[in-house]
# Entry
Amino acid sequence: MTALLLAVALTACGDKSGGKDGAKTISILTPYLSSVTTNEMVESLKKQAADKGWKANVVDTKGDMGQLASRMEDVISSKTDAIVLVSTDPNQLKSQIQRAKDKSIPVFGADSGYIEGMVMNATSDNKEMSKLISEHLFQTIGDEGKLVILTHRPHPGVLARTVQLDELLKDKPNISKVTEQQVEVPGPIENARKQMESLLLSNKAEGSITAVWAGWDEAAIGAAQAIEAAGRKDIVVTGIDGNSQAVDMIKKGSPLVATVKQNFTGMTEIVVKQIELVFAGQPAEGTELYAPASLVTKDNG
# Structure
């Protein structure tokens, strides 16, 4: 009997140790798996989890935030060891994040925002990225012209970039906003292309649109495709993310002239390191940790 009890105790200890025995499960949740960059982060998290001996469970709700909240309830009930929110506004999951905390399930963010109840979030400095790309765009158009803004404010990173653009435009009296439009997800490239086609039809005169500021590359790609197809040589486009299709378009001299390349793999590496620390009973290194980003143009792409 003593030997049996000892064996049970050792097994219980093994279940809590995680790592290579595969005991730990991380649940990766996102509403945007169809996005190139979100998918890149999810695949990186899956690979790193496998390398650590963790099981990875991926949940994608295809743009449905209500369903994401419900699925998060499910993974909390399943007693997952950690939750990673990818490209998700945590403000829409406040009660679920608190419930996870109450159950001692740590919640991490990868290119998401940070709110009370989470352990941390890894992202790029969205304010600085917006400043970098916006100032490049302003310089490109000589600090004057008519600007179309394509954004998606429900995404915390894109929201931060757009708010920063709003601040910067206050000091640019000769740049006027034609319109700000939200590009729906999933399908941002196609949706942005259709929206840009409509804008071009209603702004046919040369100079009626000088530039398009897009909050992320897929919206920029769609806008640039529409502009190129319409033969409009007088409009430039910028994006943020540095995905491969955008960089190729910049190199080829399309209307898409610049982006800011984010280090998405670097973000996931930061998250995985923090998960390891928490699994080892140590605190995370911070609540908002940044991976570096850099400007990409035709000259350095």
In short: Residues 126-261 form a domain with the Rossmann fold fold (CATH 3.40.50.2300).
